Amino acid sequence: MNRKQTIIIALFSFISIRVIAQQRLTVRDSLTQEPIAYMSVWFGNEVGGYTDESGMIEIPKGTKKIRLSHICYETKSIAKVTADAQTIFLVPKITNIDEVAVSAKAPKRIKATEVGLMKAKTQTKHKGANGFEMALFIPYDSAWAETPYIHSILASLDYSTHWLVFTEIKTPIYATLRFDLRLPDAKTGAPKDESLIDGGIILPSGQKLSKDGISLTRPIPFPQTGVFVVVEWITTAQVSESCNLIPSLNMTLDEKENRTWNKKTFFAKQSGGAERRGMDWMREQDEPAYQNEEAQVFYKGRTPSAKLGLKISK
Predict the structure, then answer these.
(1) Which residue in 4, 60, 99, 261 has a CA-CA distance of 20 to 30 Å to 66?
(2) What CA–CA distance (Å, rounded) separates 135 from 281?
């Protein structure tokens, strides 16, 4: 290889690197200038993604529109990234949650107990998927003499690569999990887009959840409206919404009243000839996957409920 050929190859390599650099976007808080990690970014198709710990994400080739969303920030839509290094600043949401007053004080009398479906029998599992959220509504018990405090979020997770329903995962991808607490919407009954615990608590990829669950930074009073326990699957890898992620969530079929909801952030669907982003919160029994005859036979007409819960003290 002569000197001229070497220079040409080096030049093309430099141009290629520049093209790749043009497809990167960094998201920051408009007040603190800090990067926003694990913000969902929708590219106008079924391939969405999340910013990494530095607030950066690579934009796929051919992206025509970008939508940025996070439970703690105002949603923002922008045109395709064209600069070498573009930074977007998002404005934090201002929310007033009157139903729950956060307290740093623990109750004087501590009697720990669990509420939710953690002790229910595991009969099936729900696979993890990028941008997928599962929520279980836990009602307030009118028999409680005093309002209990929530100390930890509990979840029954399966880190194996085999499921009762789904086939073996050939290339396991371990997801980062975000756990959150939300109030129910008064009209729809679905989880509100407001976090009770500052945007949720992150469980890093590959770190297993212990039997004690994930502790809140400070206990909060149990809302008298009831509360949703929410878990969200996140990966910074560029994968489709249908790609299998670890862990899966254990489910039970024994609940007479199903209080489980799910949401798909990146799934694209046609509505009236136009593409619509994602699928908003729906009750688990309304999930299309359970409507076909084969599913009805397998589940015997029952709908799986999420094995999520809370550790509370009274």
Answers:
(1) 261
(2) 9
Cα-based torsion angle of the residue sequence 55, 282, 133, 158 in order, rounded to the nearest 10 degrees: -170
Q: Which residue has the tokens 């995962």?
A: 169
Please state, for a pLDDT cut of 90, what percent of the chain lies above it. Answer: 51
Average pLDDT value for the chain: 82
Please state which of the ranges 79-88, 98-107, 172-181, 191-200 shows the lowest mean pLDDT.
98-107
Residue 13 — left, alpha, or beta (φ > 0 → left; ψ -120 to 50 → alpha)? alpha
State both tokens at 115.
């509420």
The amino acid occupying position 212 is D
Extended strands (E) in 239-304: 245-252, 260-271, 274-283
Distance CA 257, CA 264 (A): 23
Outline where the chain has alpha helix (H). Answer: 3-21, 293-299
Distance between CA 310 and CA 138 in Å, rounded?
9
At 115, the amino acid letter reads: V
Other residues' Cβ atoms within 10 Å of the Cβ of residue 295 = 15
Exposed/middle/buried for 289, CB within 10 Å: 0-12, 13-18, 19+?
A: exposed
Number of Cβ atoms within 10 Å of the Cβ of 293: 7
Pick the more confident residue, 201 or 58.
201
Give the residue, 1 or 217, on which the prediction is more confident: 217
Task: Kindly state the average pLDDT of the residues 26-46.
Answer: 88
Confidence of residue 200 (pLDDT cuts 50, 70, 90): very high
- pTM comes to 0.82
Residue 149 to residue 129: CA distance in whole angstroms: 31
* Cβ atoms of residues 206 and 177 within 8 Å: no
